UniProtKB/TrEMBL annotation:
Residues 70-276 form the ABC transmembrane type-1 domain. The gene is pstA1_5. It is found in: Cell membrane. It holds the Pfam family BPD_transp_1. Belongs to the binding-protein-dependent transport system permease family. CysTW subfamily. GO terms for molecular function: phosphate transmembrane transporter activity. It comes from bioreactor metagenome. This is Phosphate transport system permease protein PstA 1. Its main location: membrane. The chain crosses the membrane at residues 20-42, 74-95, 115-135, 141-159, 189-210, 257-279. GO terms for biological process: phosphate ion transmembrane transport.
Length: 288
């Protein structure tokens, strides 16, 4: 028979050891992050000024700016969101609320989940062969947005499906009992209640699109542009590719300029994620 006192002591020791290991891992992670951020700020802060935001890239680091890359990223993200969000939510609603549960539906769901883990370079090859060459869209913002939509749609669909599955069946049954149709129940009960989870998946997917570079290199994003994009068929450059271009230059000033661009990109990503958290919390308070 086990000694209760000895067992309690071992359990208490195990709890303290686990707490120490987890706290150490968290501290080391935060410490490394602080060091990296400090290095970025120390190297890139001298380039953060109004001219940096308004100038075009130049062969001189002191005259280089990030305006075309910022506008290109904005065009790409907005167009990608307009394409992918309606399609992803519609597909998830159909699969969860309307599609019959059979082998075909299960096969589609499994493959959508698998597509969420496919390397981004594969989507770049697909975009190059189909959108750029077969459809003849060329090296344009539209080709990049369509390719990025394929990349992030599986993530949005899976996140929307999980959010819809979390809605209690009693809410649907209550709506049906009051005489509501299937569509009214989905529109008035299911989607509003699942909105926090849907928004989380959407923002995370858009954040991934903002930070991707490999698919866009294949689709045809330029490493230098001399004009600003004015339409979806124009050539473009995005911030990750601009960062890669500057980092490949031998000059130490361009590496510091890269640090400044990374700071801007991180600020945009953090702002995007903070917005998602605020919106999600607002809707959670509304519908809980």
């Amino acid at each position: 028979m086990k000694n209760p006192i000895s067992y309690n002591k071992r359990r208490e020791f195990s709890n303290k050891l686990a707490h120490f290991l987890f706290a150490t891992a968290a501290f080391v992670s935060i410490f490394v992050l602080v060091i990296l951020l400090s290095d970025l700020i120390a190297r890139g802060s001298r380039f953060i000024n109004w001219e940096f935001f308004m100038n075009f890239p130049s062969r001189f680091a002191s005259k280089s700016g990030i305006l075309p890359a910022m506008l290109g990223s904005l065009w790409l993200v907005v167009l990608t969101a307009l394409i992918s969000i309606p399609l992803s939510i519609s597909a998830a609603v159909y699969l969860e609320e309307y599609a019959m549960e059979n082998r075909i539906t299960r096969f589609i769901k499994i493959n959508i989940s698998n597509l969420a883990g496919v390397p981004s370079i594969v989507y770049g090859i697909l975009g190059l062969s189909f959108f750029v060459r077969t459809l003849g869209l060329g090296r344009s913002i539209l080709s990049g947005a369509l390719t990025m939509s394929l990349l992030i749609m599986p993530i949005m669909i899976v996140a929307t499906q999980e959010a819809i599955r979390m809605i209690p069946a009693s809410l649907r049954e209550g709506s049906y009992a009051l005489g509501a149709s299937k569509w009214k129940t989905v529109k008035g009960i299911v989607l509003p209640s699942a909105l926090p989870g849907i928004l989380t998946g959407v923002i995370l997917a858009i954040s991934r699109a903002l930070g991707e570079s490999a698919p866009l290199l294949l689709v045809g994003a330029f490493s230098f542009v001399s004009t600003l994009p004015k339409g979806i068929m124009d050539s473009f450059i995005v911030m990750p590719i601009q960062i890669y271009t500057w980092m490949s230059k031998p000059s130490a000033d361009f590496r510091d300029l890269t640090a400044a661009a990374i700071m801007i990109l991180m600020a945009l990503l953090l702002t995007l994620n903070m917005t998602a958290i605020i919106i999600r919390n607002k809707f959670q308070q509304t519908y809980e």
